[in-house]
Amino acid sequence: MTGKDGLSSSVVETVAGFTAGVVSTLVVHPLDLVKTRLQVDRSSPARFGNSLQIMRAISANEGGIRAFYRGLAPNLIGNSTSWALYFLFYASLKDMACSFRGQPAHLLKSSDYFLTSGAAGVLTALMTNPIWVVKTRMLATGANSPGAYPSVISGVRQIYQTEGLRGFYRGLVPSLFGVSHGAFQFMAYEKLKTFWSMDSSTSETQGKGRPGSQRTFGVLDTLALSGTSKLFAGCVTYPYQVIRARLQVLEAQMLYRGAMDAVHQVWSREGIAGFYRGLGPNLVRVLPSTWVTFVVYETIKAKLPTSTGQA
């Protein structure tokens, strides 16, 4: 993929992904906090109503509205960095797939999208897991809770002093398994975009009597396709997020011997519902987050070359 008006595609993808990560995090961070609390809660049966109880408890006991933005810094750093790296890796790998196949991106197979987005997810997870460990621990505990990290720097220091470098990679195994989420999502998104464009082209050709071409996606198109692909991927891969969160909390060393032990304990104590703790608020959270992320990403990617004055 070549950037427009002299801009390299790496610059376009990185800036668009970074901006999308920042904006989406600022919008949905409170819901992310509630989801994390639900995922690590082992004290009550999993049900949707628990999210309202947790929201009331946070507001009443941890400082009101401000408490819902605890852990914003690592979440902001993590999301912006992750999306910047992910889109950069994904675009580069997709270019390689196009060269290998000898055809444009919209003609790639579903398996090509799945493999390239999955590989991009693995690379991103390896580079950003330390950020997510700090973020999960800050979101899982109130500011006044015993052992809670008062800041990102404090969290990094405590993890290094008590657990060493290995502590920053807790939950990495389920995270690597979890790249399937992005793989399923982008596979669905890319194929939906292709079908949507072809359908629009056909309609324009039939209605106006001239050759059709792939249309430029509007905001409503992006909302519909990104939302559909996210719901599909979310329902398929949510359980890994629960296991990852359980392995990243402060007391994980005392509770679980590893990913498989966590899976066994959740299954034996909570049943299948335990793997879907927080799914309700997560679905509420991921749609706005996905919509904001993809709308900002697609918009910035389209407008960035002109806005730099290189048009």
Describe it for me?
This protein is mainly alpha-helical. It has one domain (9-198, 218-303): Alpha/alpha barrel (Mitochondrial carrier fold), CATH 1.50.40.10. Helix content is 73%, strand content 0%. The protein has 11 helices and no strands. The radius of gyration is 21 Å and the shape is globular. The two termini are 18 Å apart. Residues 203-213 and 306-311 have low confidence and may be disordered.
Q: State mean pLDDT (0 to 100 scale).
A: 82
Helix- and strand-based class?
Answer: mainly alpha
Q: Would you identify the CATH architecture? A: Alpha/alpha barrel
Distance between the termini: 18 Å
**How big is the Rg?**
21 Å
What's the order of the H and E elements?
HHHHHHHHHHH
Major beta sheet summary:
none
Low-confidence blocks of residues: 203-213, 306-311
Instruction: Give the full name of the CATH homologous superfamily.
Output: Mitochondrial carrier domain
Classify the helix fraction into a percent range.
Answer: over 70%
What's the total helix number? Answer: 11
Strand content: under 5%
User: How many domain modules?
Assistant: 1
Number of strands: 0
Q: Describe the global form.
A: globular
CATH C-level class is Mainly Alpha
Solcar repeats: 8-96, 112-195, 221-303
Pfam family, one: Mito_carr
Transmembrane segments: 76-93, 113-134
Main location: mitochondrion
